[in-house]
Specification:
single chain, 267 residues, mainly alpha, 0% strand
Length: 267
Protein backbone atom coordinates (compact mmCIF):
# COMPACT_ATOMS: atom_id res chain seq x y z
CA UNK A 1 0.00 0.00 0.00
CA UNK A 2 2.80 2.41 0.96
CA UNK A 3 4.79 1.50 -2.18
CA UNK A 4 1.72 2.08 -4.37
CA UNK A 5 1.01 5.46 -2.75
CA UNK A 6 4.65 6.46 -3.20
CA UNK A 7 4.50 5.40 -6.85
CA UNK A 8 1.38 7.46 -7.56
CA UNK A 9 2.80 10.52 -5.80
CA UNK A 10 5.93 10.26 -7.96
CA UNK A 11 3.83 9.77 -11.09
CA UNK A 12 1.65 12.78 -10.28
CA UNK A 13 4.76 14.89 -9.73
CA UNK A 14 6.04 13.88 -13.18
CA UNK A 15 2.67 14.66 -14.80
CA UNK A 16 2.56 18.08 -13.08
CA UNK A 17 6.16 18.81 -14.07
CA UNK A 18 5.37 18.10 -17.71
CA UNK A 19 2.16 20.15 -17.61
CA UNK A 20 3.99 23.11 -16.06
CA UNK A 21 6.64 22.94 -18.81
CA UNK A 22 3.89 23.17 -21.42
CA UNK A 23 2.25 26.11 -19.60
CA UNK A 24 5.49 28.07 -19.25
CA UNK A 25 6.25 27.49 -22.93
CA UNK A 26 3.41 29.97 -23.59
CA UNK A 27 3.87 32.39 -20.69
CA UNK A 28 1.59 35.09 -22.06
CA UNK A 29 -1.28 32.61 -22.32
CA UNK A 30 -0.55 31.53 -18.77
CA UNK A 31 -0.67 35.10 -17.44
CA UNK A 32 -3.76 36.02 -19.46
CA UNK A 33 -5.57 32.92 -18.19
CA UNK A 34 -4.77 33.77 -14.56
CA UNK A 35 -5.70 37.44 -14.98
CA UNK A 36 -8.96 36.68 -16.78
CA UNK A 37 -10.18 34.46 -13.93
CA UNK A 38 -9.11 37.08 -11.39
CA UNK A 39 -11.12 39.73 -13.23
CA UNK A 40 -14.11 37.40 -13.42
CA UNK A 41 -13.98 36.81 -9.67
CA UNK A 42 -13.47 40.50 -9.00
CA UNK A 43 -16.62 41.30 -11.01
CA UNK A 44 -18.68 39.07 -8.68
CA UNK A 45 -17.21 40.76 -5.59
CA UNK A 46 -17.83 44.19 -7.12
CA UNK A 47 -21.50 43.26 -7.61
CA UNK A 48 -21.78 42.34 -3.90
CA UNK A 49 -20.15 45.66 -2.96
CA UNK A 50 -22.66 47.60 -5.08
CA UNK A 51 -25.54 45.82 -3.35
CA UNK A 52 -24.15 46.66 0.11
CA UNK A 53 -23.69 50.29 -0.86
CA UNK A 54 -27.51 50.45 -0.67
CA UNK A 55 -28.20 48.10 2.27
CA UNK A 56 -26.58 47.48 5.66
CA UNK A 57 -27.18 43.73 5.83
CA UNK A 58 -28.68 40.92 3.77
CA UNK A 59 -31.09 38.95 5.93
CA UNK A 60 -28.84 39.66 8.92
CA UNK A 61 -25.54 38.95 7.14
CA UNK A 62 -23.01 41.78 6.86
CA UNK A 63 -20.84 42.61 3.85
CA UNK A 64 -17.68 41.08 5.35
CA UNK A 65 -19.48 37.91 6.40
CA UNK A 66 -20.70 37.40 2.83
CA UNK A 67 -17.23 38.29 1.57
CA UNK A 68 -15.84 35.54 3.80
CA UNK A 69 -18.32 33.02 2.36
CA UNK A 70 -17.36 34.16 -1.14
CA UNK A 71 -13.65 33.77 -0.37
CA UNK A 72 -14.02 30.19 0.88
CA UNK A 73 -16.10 29.33 -2.21
CA UNK A 74 -13.41 30.76 -4.52
CA UNK A 75 -10.52 29.07 -2.71
CA UNK A 76 -12.28 25.70 -2.55
CA UNK A 77 -13.21 25.94 -6.21
CA UNK A 78 -9.61 26.69 -7.13
CA UNK A 79 -8.54 23.24 -5.89
CA UNK A 80 -10.97 21.69 -8.35
CA UNK A 81 -10.06 24.20 -11.06
CA UNK A 82 -6.29 23.66 -10.86
CA UNK A 83 -5.99 19.93 -10.27
CA UNK A 84 -9.25 18.34 -11.46
CA UNK A 85 -10.37 20.54 -14.36
CA UNK A 86 -10.03 17.63 -16.79
CA UNK A 87 -13.31 16.25 -15.43
CA UNK A 88 -15.11 18.68 -17.73
CA UNK A 89 -13.60 17.02 -20.79
CA UNK A 90 -14.42 13.33 -20.19
CA UNK A 91 -17.16 13.08 -22.80
CA UNK A 92 -16.14 15.38 -25.63
CA UNK A 93 -12.34 15.01 -25.46
CA UNK A 94 -11.91 11.40 -24.34
CA UNK A 95 -14.95 9.17 -24.88
CA UNK A 96 -16.40 10.63 -28.10
CA UNK A 97 -13.10 10.65 -30.09
CA UNK A 98 -12.03 7.29 -28.63
CA UNK A 99 -9.09 8.65 -26.61
CA UNK A 100 -10.31 7.14 -23.35
CA UNK A 101 -9.37 3.66 -24.56
CA UNK A 102 -5.65 4.42 -24.23
CA UNK A 103 -6.09 5.09 -20.49
CA UNK A 104 -7.50 1.60 -20.01
CA UNK A 105 -4.49 -0.23 -21.43
CA UNK A 106 -1.91 1.49 -19.22
CA UNK A 107 -0.79 -0.03 -15.89
CA UNK A 108 -2.16 2.76 -13.69
CA UNK A 109 -5.58 3.67 -12.35
CA UNK A 110 -7.55 5.22 -15.27
CA UNK A 111 -9.15 7.89 -13.06
CA UNK A 112 -5.73 8.93 -11.76
CA UNK A 113 -4.36 9.08 -15.31
CA UNK A 114 -7.37 11.02 -16.55
CA UNK A 115 -7.10 13.64 -13.77
CA UNK A 116 -3.30 13.93 -13.98
CA UNK A 117 -3.47 14.52 -17.74
CA UNK A 118 -4.18 18.19 -17.17
CA UNK A 119 -3.19 21.03 -14.86
CA UNK A 120 -5.27 24.17 -15.35
CA UNK A 121 -3.36 27.41 -14.86
CA UNK A 122 -6.50 29.58 -14.82
CA UNK A 123 -7.34 28.21 -11.38
CA UNK A 124 -4.38 30.04 -9.85
CA UNK A 125 -6.22 33.31 -10.47
CA UNK A 126 -9.18 31.97 -8.51
CA UNK A 127 -6.87 30.84 -5.71
CA UNK A 128 -5.20 34.27 -5.44
CA UNK A 129 -8.53 36.11 -5.32
CA UNK A 130 -9.93 33.65 -2.77
CA UNK A 131 -6.96 34.13 -0.43
CA UNK A 132 -7.12 37.93 -0.80
CA UNK A 133 -10.86 38.00 -0.10
CA UNK A 134 -10.56 35.74 2.96
CA UNK A 135 -7.67 37.85 4.27
CA UNK A 136 -9.73 41.02 3.77
CA UNK A 137 -12.79 39.65 5.57
CA UNK A 138 -11.07 37.89 8.51
CA UNK A 139 -10.24 41.00 10.63
CA UNK A 140 -13.92 42.02 10.48
CA UNK A 141 -15.26 38.76 11.93
CA UNK A 142 -15.96 38.39 15.64
CA UNK A 143 -13.42 35.64 16.24
CA UNK A 144 -9.92 35.48 17.67
CA UNK A 145 -7.72 33.78 15.10
CA UNK A 146 -5.25 31.28 16.52
CA UNK A 147 -3.41 28.21 15.24
CA UNK A 148 -6.47 25.97 15.75
CA UNK A 149 -8.78 28.34 13.87
CA UNK A 150 -6.37 28.58 10.93
CA UNK A 151 -6.01 24.80 10.88
CA UNK A 152 -9.80 24.31 10.82
CA UNK A 153 -10.10 26.91 8.05
CA UNK A 154 -7.53 25.07 5.90
CA UNK A 155 -9.31 21.73 6.51
CA UNK A 156 -12.65 23.31 5.58
CA UNK A 157 -11.23 24.75 2.33
CA UNK A 158 -9.65 21.43 1.32
CA UNK A 159 -12.94 19.64 2.10
CA UNK A 160 -14.78 22.28 0.05
CA UNK A 161 -12.50 21.60 -2.91
CA UNK A 162 -13.07 17.86 -2.78
CA UNK A 163 -16.84 18.30 -2.58
CA UNK A 164 -16.61 20.27 -5.85
CA UNK A 165 -14.52 17.43 -7.28
CA UNK A 166 -16.90 14.70 -6.11
CA UNK A 167 -20.00 16.38 -7.54
CA UNK A 168 -18.33 17.03 -10.90
CA UNK A 169 -16.95 13.49 -11.04
CA UNK A 170 -20.37 12.00 -10.29
CA UNK A 171 -22.14 13.85 -13.10
CA UNK A 172 -19.21 13.61 -15.54
CA UNK A 173 -19.41 9.82 -15.13
CA UNK A 174 -22.79 9.90 -16.90
CA UNK A 175 -20.72 10.27 -20.08
CA UNK A 176 -20.05 6.53 -19.94
CA UNK A 177 -23.73 6.00 -20.81
CA UNK A 178 -24.56 9.11 -22.85
CA UNK A 179 -21.12 9.84 -24.44
CA UNK A 180 -21.11 13.50 -23.34
CA UNK A 181 -22.74 14.70 -20.13
CA UNK A 182 -21.20 18.20 -20.26
CA UNK A 183 -24.58 20.03 -20.39
CA UNK A 184 -25.67 18.22 -17.22
CA UNK A 185 -22.32 18.81 -15.49
CA UNK A 186 -22.46 22.50 -16.39
CA UNK A 187 -26.06 22.88 -15.17
CA UNK A 188 -25.30 21.22 -11.83
CA UNK A 189 -22.06 23.15 -11.39
CA UNK A 190 -23.88 26.46 -11.83
CA UNK A 191 -25.91 25.61 -8.73
CA UNK A 192 -22.73 26.19 -6.72
CA UNK A 193 -23.21 29.93 -7.27
CA UNK A 194 -26.08 29.78 -4.78
CA UNK A 195 -23.65 28.64 -2.07
CA UNK A 196 -21.57 31.82 -2.40
CA UNK A 197 -24.30 33.59 -0.44
CA UNK A 198 -25.99 32.73 2.88
CA UNK A 199 -28.35 29.79 2.38
CA UNK A 200 -30.75 31.40 4.83
CA UNK A 201 -31.84 33.87 2.15
CA UNK A 202 -33.33 31.04 0.07
CA UNK A 203 -36.50 28.99 0.36
CA UNK A 204 -36.32 26.01 2.74
CA UNK A 205 -36.54 23.55 -0.18
CA UNK A 206 -33.49 25.09 -1.87
CA UNK A 207 -31.55 24.98 1.41
CA UNK A 208 -32.29 21.28 1.86
CA UNK A 209 -31.37 20.53 -1.77
CA UNK A 210 -28.02 22.33 -1.49
CA UNK A 211 -27.30 20.67 1.85
CA UNK A 212 -28.31 17.02 1.46
CA UNK A 213 -28.90 16.30 -2.27
CA UNK A 214 -26.19 18.27 -4.09
CA UNK A 215 -24.16 19.44 -1.08
CA UNK A 216 -22.77 22.69 -2.42
CA UNK A 217 -23.78 24.32 0.87
CA UNK A 218 -20.76 22.60 2.42
CA UNK A 219 -18.40 24.21 -0.12
CA UNK A 220 -18.78 27.73 1.27
CA UNK A 221 -21.73 28.67 3.46
CA UNK A 222 -21.43 26.06 6.22
CA UNK A 223 -17.60 26.23 6.47
CA UNK A 224 -17.82 30.03 6.72
CA UNK A 225 -20.70 29.87 9.21
CA UNK A 226 -18.46 27.96 11.63
CA UNK A 227 -16.39 31.14 12.10
CA UNK A 228 -19.30 33.58 12.22
CA UNK A 229 -20.61 34.19 15.71
CA UNK A 230 -24.33 33.56 16.15
CA UNK A 231 -24.80 31.91 12.74
CA UNK A 232 -26.44 28.88 14.35
CA UNK A 233 -24.71 26.45 11.98
CA UNK A 234 -21.48 25.76 13.88
CA UNK A 235 -22.27 22.08 14.56
CA UNK A 236 -23.50 21.41 11.03
CA UNK A 237 -20.36 23.07 9.67
CA UNK A 238 -18.20 20.46 11.43
CA UNK A 239 -19.72 17.84 9.12
CA UNK A 240 -17.98 19.44 6.12
CA UNK A 241 -14.98 17.01 6.05
CA UNK A 242 -17.35 14.07 6.59
CA UNK A 243 -19.56 15.22 3.70
CA UNK A 244 -16.43 15.57 1.53
CA UNK A 245 -15.29 12.00 2.28
CA UNK A 246 -18.75 10.49 1.73
CA UNK A 247 -19.24 12.48 -1.49
CA UNK A 248 -15.87 11.30 -2.85
CA UNK A 249 -16.63 7.68 -1.99
CA UNK A 250 -20.04 7.84 -3.70
CA UNK A 251 -18.56 9.55 -6.77
CA UNK A 252 -15.75 7.00 -7.03
CA UNK A 253 -18.22 4.11 -6.66
CA UNK A 254 -20.33 5.61 -9.45
CA UNK A 255 -17.20 6.09 -11.60
CA UNK A 256 -16.38 2.39 -11.25
CA UNK A 257 -19.95 1.51 -12.23
CA UNK A 258 -19.59 3.69 -15.31
CA UNK A 259 -16.21 2.17 -16.12
CA UNK A 260 -17.72 -1.32 -16.15
CA UNK A 261 -20.53 -0.10 -18.43
CA UNK A 262 -18.13 1.68 -20.84
CA UNK A 263 -18.00 0.60 -24.46
CA UNK A 264 -15.66 2.24 -26.92
CA UNK A 265 -17.15 4.55 -29.55
CA UNK A 266 -14.81 2.97 -32.08
CA UNK A 267 -13.63 6.36 -33.34
Amino acid sequence: MTLMLSRYIKLYYLFCKQNLKVMLEYRMDFLLGVLSVMLQQFAGIFFVKIVFDHIHALNGWTFYEILFIYGIAATGRSIHHIFFDNLWTLGWQYIRPGKFDRLLIRPINPLFHFIADRLQQDGFGQLFIGIIVIGTAMPHLSISWGVLEFFILVVMIIASGFIFVAINLFFATLSFWMVDSLPIVWTIFNLSDFARYPLTIYHKGIRHFLTWIVPYGFTAFYPAAYFIEGSGFERLALLTPVVAIISCLIAYWFWNRGLRAFTSTGS
